[in-house]
């Protein structure tokens, strides 16, 4: 019993020391986004807890919309949708022109859950555009996608768990078009060591800090032509995937 009490005390002390260390680190570097209890600010650089906070918006549509509003992101809230067991959404949005959102999507009518939209905004600002400038010396003008909402089970297998696409909590990214018209595709440019492959790996890796699940061509054949990004609720509880 004494040994158990000693172990519990040691765990509590370690947790307190870790919290203190995080607080000192964040204060010294002026990085509130590195603290787990600070409010999410989409305009801030990516911090140690940004991904967790984004995923945590899954159950709080008002907070998610407030975060988009504060960051100057223009959007339209989509009407709730119910489509049978396991399908539908109540927190989907669609980006609109203007405001702080710069990248266009093709097709343009992309509707995603609010937490995915928030993740895409930070991904553009803090990952995609810096990588494009660093590697190509120009910005990305458009992102091509395979859509978000799709009432289906995982891999369309009967009896499988419902896909995150069934609630618009996932989006599939297929290609990028640079300002000069250069097109970068997952299906054609992932392999190799050239600039296009370097860019695709950079934006994949950066996405891992922002989404609960990131799947790429490295994962399996089904993802050979796209990135799968989702904000599954399980990510808020600590389980995350980056492959």
Q: How many structural domains can be distinguished in the coordinates?
A: 2
Give a short account of the largest sheet.
7 strands, mixed
Helix/strand/pairing class, anyone? alpha+beta
Cα gyration radius (Å) = 19 Å
Q: What share of residues are in beta strands?
A: 15-25%
Task: Average the pLDDT over all residues and give the rounded result.
Answer: 88
Which blocks of ≥5 consecutive residues have pLDDT under 50? Answer: none
Distance between the termini: 43 Å
Helix fraction by DSSP (H/I, runs of at least 4): 25-40%
Organism: Sphingomonas suaedae
Domain Extensin-like C-terminal: 63-243
Transmembrane segments: 6-28
Keywords: Membrane, Transmembrane, Transmembrane helix
Describe the structure.
It contains 6 helices and 12 strands. The strands form 3 sheets. Strands 5, 7, 8, 9, 10, 11 and 12 form a 7-stranded mixed β-sheet that branches. A 3-stranded antiparallel β-sheet has the order 1-4-6. Strands 2-3 form a two-stranded antiparallel ribbon. The model has no long low-confidence stretch (mean pLDDT 88). InterPro entries: Extensin-like_C. This is Extensin family protein. Keywords: Membrane, Transmembrane, Transmembrane helix. It comes from Sphingomonas suaedae.
């Amino acid at each position: 019993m004494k040994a158990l009490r000693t172990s519990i005390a040691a765990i509590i002390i370690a947790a307190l020391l870790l919290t203190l260390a995080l607080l000192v680190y964040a204060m010294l570097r002026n990085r509130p986004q590195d603290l787990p209890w600070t409010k999410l600010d989409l305009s801030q650089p990516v911090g140690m807890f940004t991904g967790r906070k984004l995923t945590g918006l899954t159950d709080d549509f008002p907070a998610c919309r407030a975060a988009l509003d504060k960051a100057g992101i223009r959007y339209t809230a989509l009407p709730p949708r119910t489509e049978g067991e396991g399908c539908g959404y109540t927190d989907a949005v669609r980006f609109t022109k203007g405001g702080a959102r710069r990248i266009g999507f093709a097709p343009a009518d992309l509707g995603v859950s609010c937490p995915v939209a928030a993740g895409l905004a930070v991904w553009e600002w803090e990952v995609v555009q810096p990588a494009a400038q660093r590697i190509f010396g120009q910005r990305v003008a458009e992102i091509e996608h395979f859509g978000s909402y799709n009432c289906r089970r995982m891999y369309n297998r009967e009896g499988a768990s419902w896909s995150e696409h069934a609630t618009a909590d996932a989006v599939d990214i297929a290609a990028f078009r640079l300002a000069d018209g250069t097109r970068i595709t997952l299906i054609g440019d992932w392999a190799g060591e050239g600039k296009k492959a370097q860019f695709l790996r950079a934006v994949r890796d950066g996405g891992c800090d922002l989404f609960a699940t990131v799947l790429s061509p490295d994962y399996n054949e089904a993802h050979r032509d796209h990135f799968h990004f989702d904000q599954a609720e399980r990510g808020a509880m600590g389980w995350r995937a980056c492959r």
